[in-house]
Structures are given as C-alpha cells and as structure tokens.
Specification:
Length: about 350
C-alpha cells in the first residue's frame, strides 16, 4: 500500500477517434466497466485516496459515466481541458484541482487508457520512487527500438536525463522505454511544465519532457522497470478486444478463488459488476452482466444470459435469457425461458420449458 502524501492525476483527454467512435476512449467498456474505472480502481488499490481526472471537451459524458459507480475509497474530481494543447497542459490544469498542496508530496501521473494497470504495480512504482529520493521517477519497460519509441536518455554516468523519441528503424535491438507513467514531486511539477518546449509538429506541450527539464535543473530523475504487459495501452479495437480477454480471465480467476465453479472458463463471461456467492456453478455459454447477483448453491446454464438479474439461493437456471428479472430461492427455470424486465419468479417455482414472463 502507498504511504505518505501522494495524489493521482489521470489524463483522460483522448477522444474516441482511435477507436473510430463518438464515445470518448476512457469510457469504452471492458467487462462491463469503463476503461477509466479500471485505472481508478488500481489507484485506489495502491492506497491513494485523492485523484483529479483531466478530460477533453467530453468531460460531462465521462464524469457522469464514472460517477454512476464511483471508485470506492478514492475522492475524485474532474477538470476539463477545452482544447487539445498537450498532456503537459492537461497536467497543469489538473494540478489546480487538488485541495491541499504539500510541496514535498508526490503526484502520480497516469493516462486513462491503461486498464490492465494494478494496484501492486503502482505501489511498487511509489516504493521505488521513495527509495531513490528522486524528484521524478519514470516507469519503464524494455521494448524493441523503432520509430516513435520513447527511450530513456542517460548521461555518461548512466543517470537518466530525459526521454527522447527514437527515429531509428527497427533493427531487433531492445531499449529502455518510458510508458507514460510518472511520479513527480508536487512542488516541482508545475514549474517544470511551464519550462517545457512545444512539440515542433503540433505545438503541444508534452508531459514526457518534464523529466528532462528537471534533470537540466539539477534534480535527480530515476526509473522503475516493469514487465512489458504491466502498462498495456488501448489504441484501437483490436487492443480493446485483447485487453478484454485478459480482464475476463482475471475476473473468472477472482471468482473461482472464492468458491465459484466454472465448468469451462473460456466460455464463461462474467462482468466485473456481477456478484457471485460460494458454491455457484456456471456451465458453458453463461453470460452474466450488469448488477446481476447469484446467491449460494445455484446452477446457472448452460447457454444462459442474465443482465441485471437476481437469483435466489439453490436455484437452477437452464438455457434462459433474463433482463431486470428476479428469480426466487430453490427455483427451476427453463430450459428456453425468457424473463423480461420486471419478471418475478416466486420461491420454489418450476417453470417448465419455454416459460415467458415480464411486467
């Protein structure tokens, strides 16, 4: 767990353009939760209690979606960057959102499109930062060199002095690369941002230039190295599907470790918003979404789709579709039942096949 004065600043300014969508990228869903919500959960799991989220012009859309199910234990405030002037300006806007200001505290800066980030990784980054006593610590991975790769620049004493964008054609060599996640001493961040130079091609000020500015001023810059997949970014629909598969596996493992049986996990889809009890058995082809709650001892499936449904203890639900429905205790529902919004199946009911109910 993180200790001390640490706040999180989340850059959520990306539009939906990379995903060919009108919906802003930070609120595309993964296992039933917005992408940004996964990042906020990781921040909270690391023991951080305060966050500021900087959005683009779609800020109202993003904030409403996130605050429909706000992160537990994490005070969250939203600020808007009205025009796309770069990540450094977004961070500067975000700094105005913190109530308390301790120059000796630290700020974690993280983009909103890293839903595989975990609290353990963030906690390790913070621990490395404090151990180094640096003004700034850059999270890094090893990746193949190539055009556009953000490489760590070091001096002849092997001290990190900044981040440079590679112009080298891929040649099979590996380099230490920044992933765009930083911990910066709070009192130094805003002055360093104001000293960054605009990118020649876009005129935008980028947060990746902050470590170089700090190093030029004589402040120590450290790096913290991680496995390559710890910071996977979502840049397109293919990445979205790949990350979804990882999160689904994590979710299934979470429930199996807590007493849920999945006959074929690869064919079992459980959203992160679902609640399961011990001794529930899920058969192949089950899909559970929304606020669905399954009580202990239930057998669900095969080929059952429940969305925002409640199932009472020791019920059996076979080849059934339900939405906003309630099934009581010790029921047998299906096969081929259809429960529409408002349907209520009383305790100990046996519906038989092709049952249909709704308000």
């Amino acid at each position: 767990m993180a200790k001390g004065d640490i706040s999180a600043l989340v850059i959520a300014t990306a539009s939906g353009a990379p995903l060919v969508s009108e919906r802003p990228k930070p609120i595309h869903l993964l296992c039933g939760r917005p992408m940004l919500a996964w990042v906020l959960t990781a921040i909270a799991d690391a023991g951080i209690g305060e966050s500021v989220i900087v959005t683009g012009p779609d800020g109202d859309w993003i904030s409403k979606r996130i605050m429909d199910a706000p992160p537990v234990g994490l005070a969250t405030r939203f600020l808007e960057q009205p025009r796309p002037r770069g990540t450094a300006e977004a961070a500067l806007i975000g700094m105005s959102g913190f109530d308390e200001f301790d120059d000796e505290g630290d700020v974690l800066i993280v983009p909103a499109d890293m839903p595989l980030l975990t609290g353990e990784v963030i906690a390790q980054l913070l621990e490395d930062h404090r151990a180094s006593d640096a003004s700034c610590t850059v999270a890094t991975i090893t990746r193949p060199d190539g055009v556009g790769v953000r490489k760590i620049e070091r001096d002849r004493h092997n001290r990190a002095i900044g981040i440079i964008e590679s112009s080298t054609e891929p040649d099979g060599s590996a380099v230490e690369s920044s992933v765009g996640v930083y911990v910066v001493r709070r009192g130094l961040l805003s002055p360093a941002i104001r000293r960054t130079m605009p990118e020649p091609s876009t005129g935008r000020h980028l947060i990746r230039d902050v470590p170089g500015v700090l190093a030029d001023s004589g402040h120590a810059v450290a790096t913290s190295h991680f496995a390559e997949d710890a910071f996977d970014e979502v840049d397109n629909r293919l990445h979205l599907a790949t990350v979804e598969a990882v999160l689904r596996d994590r979710t299934n493992r979470y429930w199996m470790e807590r007493g849920v049986t999945m006959i074929d996990p690869a064919r079992t889809r459980v959203d992160a918003t679902v609640t399961l009890s011990p001794d529930v058995t899920l058969y192949p082809g089950v899909s559970l979404s929304g606020s669905t709650t399954i009580a202990e001892g239930c057998d669900i499936g095969p080929d059952t789709n429940l969305d925002h449904c409640t199932v009472g203890a020791r019920s059996v639900v076979r080849s059934t579709t339900g939405q906003l429905a309630t099934i009581g205790e010790q029921c047998t529902v299906g096969p081929y039942a259809s429960l529409s919004a408002g349907a209520e199946v009383a305790d100990r009911t046996v519906t038989g096949p092709f049952y249909a109910a709704g308000a």
